[in-house]
Write a structure and sequence with these properties.
By secondary structure, the chain is mostly beta strands. The protein has no helices and 24 strands. It has strands at about 20-25, 30-35, 40-45, 50-55, 60-65, 80-85, 90-95, 100-105, 110-115, 125-130, 140, 145-150, 155-160, 175-180, 185-190, 190-195, 200-205, 215-220, 220-225, 230-235, 245, 255-260, 265-270, 275-280. The chain has a four-stranded antiparallel β-sheet with strand order 1-24-23-22, with no helix packed on it. The chain has a four-stranded antiparallel β-sheet with strand order 2-3-4-5, with no helix packed on it. The radius of gyration is 18 Å and the shape is globular.
Length: about 280
């Protein structure tokens, strides 16, 4: 077990975690909203501009484009976020008030829908970000009530947290979440990263000096982004620090998200994915 304590220095005292240099761009999108990369090398991109999900490999080969605007199980209305493990893909289908689940080839499996129950504690509208824990529990941001919803692997409601009764851990405007190997939930809340344990207890609220836009955790490598800067932290360190990533003066304006995997940095913009390799020396 390790304790989540961050050293944040958003001034001029960054420790540069690693420098990267541009390699190539892959994929072409209308208005990408998020992406995720699996351990077996598949990339899933949610394209809110075309209400589609695009699957490609890390070489940039397009494997499948799926969806389109609509209300049925195989279409979307603003797919705001995508989360993937090697077997299952989850989509936060915002305006359809649904979390949709697909297999790795984007074949429909099931949906969790806003109108499935009468209990107001379980009801949700406009989900905008989702992820699962290593126990299979599903967590997602319900943007209307500004809280986190938790359901088990079978779609049964467990709890919600981070709402008006959360005290100093009440969320003001949560936009994206990610989960580490200890099942701690990290939530971007304007200029804060708010951390909850798997039971919904707030454990940390880390204020930073910039407005954060995206957070991704893969193999305990956390990457957070503003619209034009990228920071990373390896969460298994005894004292994890959030360090700026240097991109060798490459222009990364309008960043949507970023992920580090296999020592490569993948940066999602609205139109493409920029791939960076570690800089020698």
């Amino acid at each position: 077990m390790y304790k989540i304590i961050f050293t944040l220095a958003f001034i001029q005292s960054f420790v540069i975690a690693q420098s990267f240099e541009f390699s190539q761009s892959i994929g072409k999108f209308d208005r990408a909203s998020s992406f995720y990369i699996t351990a077996n090398g598949l990339i899933y991109v949610s394209d809110s501009g075309k209400d589609e999900i695009i699957m490609l490999d890390t070489l940039g080969t397009g494997l499948k484009t799926f969806g389109g605007y609509g209300w049925d199980e195989n279409s979307f209305d603003d797919p705001s976020d995508v989360f993937a493990d090697p077997l299952t893909i989850y989509i936060a289908d915002k305006n359809n008030n649904s979390i949709k689940r697909f297999d790795k080839n984007l074949n429909y499996l099931s949906s969790l829908n806003a109108g499935d129950n009468d209990n107001p504690e379980e009801q949700f509208r406009y989900p905008i970000s989702c992820a699962t824990s290593n126990q299979g529990d599903l967590y997602f941001i319900e943007s209307e009530n500004k809280r986190i919803m938790k359901f088990d692997i079978f779609g049964n409601f467990i709890m919600n947290f981070g709402g008006f009764d959360a005290g100093k851990y009440q969320l003001a405007n949560p936009t994206q979440l990610a989960i580490n190997s200890l099942n701690d939930i990290f939530v971007i809340d304007e200029n804060d990263i708010v951390v909850f344990d798997q039971y919904g207890n707030g454990t940390s609220r880390i204020n930073v000096a910039e407005s954060l836009y995206s957070i991704r955790i893969l193999f305990d490598q956390m990457v957070v982004c503003t619209r034009n800067e990228i920071y990373s932290s390896f969460l298994k360190l005894a004292d994890p620090k959030l360090n700026q990533i240097s991109l060798s003066e490459f222009d990364t304006t309008e960043i949507v998200s970023a992920i580090v995997i296999n020592n490569k940095l993948y940066v999602l913009t609205e139109k493409t994915i920029l791939v960076f390799n570690p800089k020698a020396g």
